[in-house]
Amino acid sequence: MNKIIFTRTGQFAGILAISILLSACQTMSTEESVQNVEESLNELDGQTPPSVVPPLTQGQIMFASDNRYLKSQRQFVPPKATLQFEIALHLIADNKLRQAKSQLEKITHDYPSLSGAWLTLGDIARAQDNAPEAQQYYLQAIDVNTDNYFARNRLAGLYRQQGQFDAAKAQYLQAIASWPGFVSGHINLAILLDLYLGDKTGALLEYQLVRELRELQGKAPDKKLKGWIADVSRQVSQLKKRQQRVKE
Predict the structure, then answer these.
(1) For residue 13, what pLDDT is reported?
(2) Do 146 and 21 touch, CB atoms closer than 8 A?
(3) Could you count the other beta carbons within 10 Å of the beta carbon of residue 201?
(4) Of 175, 108, 110, 111, nearest to 136 (Cα)?
């Protein structure tokens, strides 16, 4: 059995902040970031002639886009469900997965419309190397809330492992549609296009979007990402040269 650790990039990263019971903090952060972008643009528009104001980049548009999943979570959550979920998260942190699963199953029985509980059950199954069960839980999370981009992102990862690359791509695209600023969705899509589908041009665009979205979020430059962009840029350039020679 694998031990689950709460990390920035691990399976349970972000659950505490954005799951169905604890989404308010991240909602505030996302909305404030979008508001700051909009206010800055309004100030710029008021002080500079319209012809001088540059158009928004694709990354800026995505960063300021609505997060449909968080908006859909603005519902009353019974205190009992909140308590049960918090208990489950503590059990997960202590690697008591069997007890955590039992606690989450109680939530899905009593409150089947809470997508985050299904998502977390899927994460437990995946940590236990039970991909079929994880897949079913992620599908249930999506059935409850089609904008649960975390579930779609996890499901896409399973599809990729199974060699179902087109199905994985579809899930990544739907995850990004629910929140265009979802960096993990973009980077995973980029890797899929780059290494599994051979779409170097599409992969380069996604890698570049990831870089821009990270900058807009105030994150430090990623050396690994920089290397990937440089490598794929060379491949795209070489591909264009070959295509040009064929035309000649």
Answers:
(1) 39
(2) no
(3) 13
(4) 108
Label residues 205-231 b or e (16+ Cβ within 10 Å = b): bbbbbbbbbbebeeeeeeeebeebbee
Q: Where are the beta strands (DSSP E) in the chain?
A: none
User: For the packed helices 200-216 and 223-247, what is the interaxial angle rounded to 10 degrees?
Assistant: 150
Q: Could you tell me which of 128, 129, 24, 38 has the C-alpha nearest to residue 77?
A: 24
Tell me the pLDDT tens digit for each residue of 159-214. Answer: 999 999 999 999 999 999 999 999 999 999 999 999 999 999 999 999 999 999 99
Task: Provide the whole-model pTM.
Answer: 0.78
> Hey, what amino acid is at 185?
G
Question: In whole angstroms, what is the distance from residue 22 CA to residue 15 CA?
Answer: 8
Evaluate whether 70 touches 23 at the Cβ level (below 8 Å): yes
Which residue has tokens 């069997």? 98
Chain center to CA of 73: 16
Query: How far apart, in whole angstroms, are the C-alpha atoms of residue 102 and residue 72?
Result: 26
C-alpha of 102 from chain center:
27
Q: Give the model's pLDDT for residue 248.
A: 72
Low-confidence ranges of the chain (pLDDT < 50): 3, 5-30
139 CB-side CA count, 13 A: 9
* Residue 34: partners with Cβ closer than 8 Å, 6 or more residues away: 63, 64
Q: CB of 151 within 8 A of CB of 20?
A: no
| CB-CB contact of 196 with 165 (8 Å) | yes
Nearest to 211 by CA among 193, 229, 199: 229
